[in-house]
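Archive entry. Fields below.
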Amino acid sequence: MTRDAILLTPGPLTTTLRTKLAMLKDWGSWDADFNAITARLRARLLDIVDGHDSHVVVPLQGSGTFSVEAAVATLVPRDGHVLVPDNGAYCKRAGKLTQMMGRKATVLPCAENQPISAAAVDERLQADASITHVVLIHCETGTGVENPLAEVAAVCRRHGKGLIVDAMSSFAALPIDARALQFDALIAASGKCLEGVPGMGFVFIRKAVLDACAGNSQSLAMDLHDQHVYMGKTGQWRFTPPTHVMAALDEAVAQFVEEGGQPARLQRYTDNCRTLVEGMTKLGFRPFLKAEVQAPIIVTFHAPARPNYDFKRFYEGAKQRGFILYPGKLTEVDTFRVGCIGAIGRHEMQQAVNAVAETLQEMGIPDGTPAP
Amino acid sequence: MTRDAILLTPGPLTTTLRTKLAMLKDWGSWDADFNAITARLRARLLDIVDGHDSHVVVPLQGSGTFSVEAAVATLVPRDGHVLVPDNGAYCKRAGKLTQMMGRKATVLPCAENQPISAAAVDERLQADASITHVVLIHCETGTGVENPLAEVAAVCRRHGKGLIVDAMSSFAALPIDARALQFDALIAASGKCLEGVPGMGFVFIRKAVLDACAGNSQSLAMDLHDQHVYMGKTGQWRFTPPTHVMAALDEAVAQFVEEGGQPARLQRYTDNCRTLVEGMTKLGFRPFLKAEVQAPIIVTFHAPARPNYDFKRFYEGAKQRGFILYPGKLTEVDTFRVGCIGAIGRHEMQQAVNAVAETLQEMGIPDGTPAP
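PREDICTED_STRUCTURE:
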């Protein structure tokens, strides 16, 4: 097959040719032309959350997890105490990286198939005054569930606790308004709903807490305060930026704006998600989550309850037809995931459903019905 | 000007169009086709140092500095003690990141215009038995000086100390043979002498010390032991890899092999460096380093001793003519730097010298002669 496969994965995802073509140029990382890209991108990212008054945004090399770790290291003092409500794999990862760097972290176990309860966070903050920060995963990509950002933000504000939001999978698709919500940090990355290529993240930091962040980080490379101060002085990154990834993101954000920004993107992804779920449901598949808690980002489906079902063969069948699926990330239930994000629309989603149907047929599986 | 400028900078640098074209495809990070790139690249990197028997190589997201920090965090135990011989900015950075992460670091000040003395390292190791590791910058990009890797490696081996080599600017250009030299870790990055694009680094780790690295890192994202174990089990990166950067590096390494590997690259860079230094010397410029300690990677020149010299104008003049120079990094002497690396040859270097001559003329500066 010579046509590129469509990535139905939660990042890296399918980007437009225009975005990729922006990488056909080498930029001097010290040069004014590149600094202009950095400055423009920072301004446009702040536009997306209406955060110019309240926040700064600091880009960082590496995958999104690097930015999550950097946000915790920069925002949380060495003697801080982080509460991590946990309803999935990315919550667990945030708890782990917090503990590894030597910050105290309390993980609050929550049901995997439900949004985190703001009331449970409230209760926990009430019970333990030593907690300084809450880390919330906005859209838990392990399942695809949307967590109640506004409610948890309100709880944190009422208790006077810092809120760090991992908005990796939701930023630019779900609405986030810095004027309406108070968060100390919010993290996203280039290769997710902005539809850039992977290689960098960025962290919004509330101006009111910025100065207190100086000296918190025990990592030089991940010190977002230092990165911010240096960028302010020089317009440059402290260490070699991923110049081509930046140029692609700049071009991706231009297309995001042209498309109509976050509302338009949400509409497209919602349409993708609906097309997918309806089509798969007709084939007998059952989503792991109830529709009302499903974010239109990535959908977890139960595996078909047939002895001749095997994810590897199923994956290969869909891939041969031009669609890259994603494995499940749940330990107790056999599932697989399908992303709804990237530079694709309902037609691609319908074609993916058709490819799944053909694959089932090829495997001798009559339908996708899971175990009851 | 529509033609892309040539980057005479120490990375990001000028890459071939073939390398950049490899980025025009989106890869699923979980997919077997992408895992094959990772596996092929790891094997080819080991080829370059003849390290298959002695070392593994672990790629990491982020700039080269992220990989340096990761190497120290992964290799040096929490109660370790690192000696950093310091003859420039990148040595100082290595010392700083070691101290920030809570490892004891002793910085050994050395003259900036001279290679580090292996005898001084020997003496220091003799005097302080608590030192566990030495961090050596192979080519100190702050000035361009080549440090004596083989001699320092021999000293470390004799004392039974671990050696961590930052070979960011030298790897793939200067000879490094893992069969002849003993090093515990050696670090380089995608956007340097391999002529890929920036966005990832990689660390060679000696197999004999690998197991003892488990649990050293206080950073999840930078834990190279964990990254290695996971890659061994799954063939995948732990966190989203910079897929396009990887694809470009894979293509860049293919061209590196076709060119004739490290000896051919060294020859080309040596030729570039000679063309540059001869041409600039004819214009009256004086290199900061003596020829015998100058690595053919980046050359520091003294600024011309003329009142109408101004680096910004000088830089702009060269840039208008299609060449991106690099600022100096010395605090006490006014200098600028010119890189000799990237997908360029002697003709581009001669054209750069011509552009510098024209720029001087435009600025009304008769020649590049520095203050005596």
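CURATOR_NOTE: Chain B has a mean pLDDT of 97.
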